[in-house]
Design a protein that fits this description.
By secondary structure, the chain is an alpha+beta fold. It has helices at about 20-30, 35-50, 55-60, 65-70, 100-110, 125-135, 155-170, 205-210, and strands spanning about 5-15, 75-80, 85-90, 110-115, 140-145, 180-185, 225-235, 240-245, 250, 255-260, 270-275, 280, 285, 290-295, 310, 320-330, 340-345, 350-360, 370, 380-390, 390-395, 405-410, 415-425. Helix 7 links the parallel strand 5 (about 140-145) and strand 6.
Length: about 425
């Protein structure tokens, strides 16, 4: 069997109407993922809906409602194979109401492309999305200065946007010398898949070429083993089979493992008997692998979704309280101590109470603006102390970053996102 290409998740982010969907659509069309026939149908559909020119966007926006409104609502996942990598492309919404999907997208992504329209430059959401990418640990980012056709492919215009975005990226801690800036016109096809004939002043890579220039994300095999459980099945002849994605570390057949908190809250110990991936038995699993595995000594009732597996000599951390840095995105009023929304941490959903708001921070720089504020609201970044109402597994950003991030949801929307920075272990 041919060795699989390394797999990378990439997300396209940016302000609404700056052309994310059109960029992704153009990329799929020019690279042949979408055929002529499908494109023709989409073109007719676009004209019929009075949206001529939206056909590329329709490739990703395949929900009927989106076509009628011309807006990206959900996250679309599509495969794109380059010379070096197999990419899953996540097209994230730019609309303010859809920021929760954008967070889900960013938290799954290794790399982000930020799309900025040449004529407008940085807009509110451009700033918010970049900060989110940083908060969510998206290590590599590329900037696509789109709609160059609307500014007559003017180099000065491109340089101005580049300078503006560079300042923002520097503020929040991206190394600017590692960030590629590519002038494109997604609508006309300049520098997306094919080199542009309209910008001879630009000698760098096209978007497609850049996708092979990104670095392959390192697999955190050296960190302690952590597998959040997605489901637990009982399979005849095999027994209890938990399913989950390996976040960090390595699990081998024969390993002594512990799953916490488990039903009793004390953790359940067992031995890994077999590991299966893509319907094949494997002897070990590494980060990124989605696996099913059987464990000797653990019953179906003992464990559930949201529990986390580790080795017995380094069990996952169950906390009684924790401190986090959060960013408030979408709360109808203000957040005060006592507020108890649902936290989505890896595969678990647990209500946590705000015990104290310790500091309000400047979201762009991270410095403290105010100690012990009475409340925080949209746009604020803060350090807060939290108490889960049930046993929760979470790790600090400094020890196992892959297990430290969470989204806070309330009344059907994502209120805030954050990362655990310190914790108090629960007595088991």
């Amino acid at each position: 069997m041919a060795k699989e290409k390394p797999h990378i998740n990439i997300v396209f982010v940016g302000h609404v109407d700056h052309g994310k969907s059109t960029t992704v659509g153009r990329l799929f069309y020019d690279s042949g993922v979408i055929d002529e026939q499908t494109m023709k149908k989409l073109k007719e559909k676009a004209q019929e809906l009075g949206k001529a020119g939206f056909e590329f966007a329709f490739i990703m926006d395949n929900l009927k409602e989106e076509r009628e409104r011309g807006v990206t609502i959900d996250l679309m996942h599509k495969k794109l194979v380059t010379k070096k990598f197999e990419y899953t492309v996540i097209d994230a919404p730019g609309h303010k109401d859809f920021i929760k999907n954008m967070i889900t997208g960013a938290s799954q992504a290794d790399i982000a492309f930020l799309v900025v329209a040449a004529a407008e430059g940085i807009m509110t959401q451009t700033r918010e999305h970049v900060i989110l990418c940083r908060t969510m640990n998206v290590k590599q980012i590329g900037i696509l200065v789109n709609k160059m056709d609307t500014v007559n492919y003017d180099k000065a215009k491109f340089e101005a946007v580049k300078a503006e975005v560079s300042t923002l990226l520097k503020q929040i801690g991206y190394k600017i010398e590692e960030v590629p800036f590519i002038p494109i016109s997604a609508w006309k096809g300049d520098n997306v898949f094919k080199k542009s004939e309209n910008m001879s002043w630009y000698t760098g890579p096209t978007l497609m070429e850049q996708m092979d220039l990104f670095k392959e994300p390192e697999k955190p095999t050296g960190l302690p083993l952590r597998i959040p459980l997605q489901d637990v099945y009982n399979i005849t002849g095999i027994g209890v089979v938990p399913v989950g994605k390996v976040e960090t570390g390595v699990m081998k057949v024969g390993d002594k493992v512990i799953i916490v908190p488990g039903r009793e809250g004390k953790g359940v110990v067992g031995e890994c008997k077999s590991i299966e991936m893509h319907h094949e038995q494997v002897s070990e699993a590494i980060p990124g692998d989605n696996i099913g595995f059987s464990v000797r000594g653990i019953g179906k009732k003992d464990i559930a979704r949201g529990d986390v597996l580790g080795h017995t000599d380094n069990p996952p951390t169950v906390v009684s309280e924790f401190t986090a840095q959060i960013m408030v995105l979408n709360h109808p009023t203000v957040i005060t101590a006592g507020y108890t929304p649902v936290f989505h941490v890896h595969t678990s959903q647990i209500a946590c109470q705000f015990i104290a708001i310790e500091k309000k921070l400047n979201p762009a720089t991270g410095e403290t603006i105010q100690e012990n504020p009475d409340f925080i609201k949209n746009g604020d970044a803060a350090i807060v102390r939290l108490k889960p109402l049930k046993p929760l597994v979470i790790e600090t950003q400094a020890t196992i970053p892959q297990m430290s991030s969470f989204a806070i949801r309330d009344a059907g929307q994502t209120v805030a996102v954050g990362r655990c920075i310190s914790l108090v272990k629960k007595a088991m």
